[in-house]
Structure prediction request, 368 residues.
Amino acid sequence: MKRIQVAVPNLSGNEKKYVDDCLDTTWISSNGKYVKQFEESFAQYLNAKKAISCCNGTVALHVPLIALGLKSGDEVLVPSLTYIATANAVRYCGATPVFVDCLRDTWNMDPVDAERKITKNTKGIMPVHLYGNPSDMDAVMDIAKRHNLFVLEDAAECHGASYKGKMAGSMGDAGIFSFFGNKIITCGEGGMIVCNDEKLDAAMRQLKGQGQDPNRRYWFTEVGYNYRMTNVAAAIGLGQLEHIDEHIAERRRVADWYFEELKDFTEYIEFQKVTEGAESVWWMFSVLIKDNVKISRDEIMRIMDEKGIETRPVFYPMHVMPVYEDKNAQCPVSEYVSSRGINLPTHALLSREDIKFICDTLKSCILG
Prediction:
């Protein structure tokens, strides 16, 4: 039986050629030409002044939080409906993530709930562009300006998306991206921080390189971290970045196929709505199972797995996790979306026939 995976990387460009060059020249660690080329090319792609490579997306969140001065006793507004790395990075700094509910239609951070949860200890806000769908950045930036908060965009899943003509990840004080194997472009593992501030860029580069003085080798002026990306990973990333527009176009085509196959089934399912003024890159095409469906979301996923179709549940809300449990968080929309949402296979190697099979199987599960 053919198995349809939820995510598969498309490695059809110069990735192997560049990796072979790393091996042939022995430049395989964190020094080498591909690190600089990848950083510069990524910054140019996003119309950002600076891009800083890291070994994964989680540490890419940690570094700017430190550089922005986050410390013990501080609070940061974080959507509850996100991957746990967003909250973990805040906790690494000794600070407290304050969980914000999501909007019912876009599944992104609810600006009204965010502003309601600001206290005298709030220092920043971290919008997450969930599943490739940009948050309402006008609302986020307005809140930040009025309350003197920093903005760190978690664009881990959102390479190439835009909001009102601006690239996701480029609008806050800093933005981050992940290059894990299931992302739109990948290094296997990797991350990138982007910003437009020279001083912030310098501080973050020093932090991710063990705190070494950039002008004096092996002289360390602060406690830093070994968060560097290898030349091999950067080589893969550069090969991917050269074809990012194609990768995004392929995902949008897959999304269009899903919409076409499921357009007459909205009595039983609903789609994630794209934020007004935004262009999603559909990292994960997802649906909510409506309340009138008798079979459970988890049972649907189990049957689809038996039929050879891998799916994923929408993220669990952070405020129900054992490590962050907060019975006073009041994020009912996040709980609802999490309990009813399914990520369907979304990647460039899917055919029209694959999408039809996935949708026909989903329909048969629901209708019985």
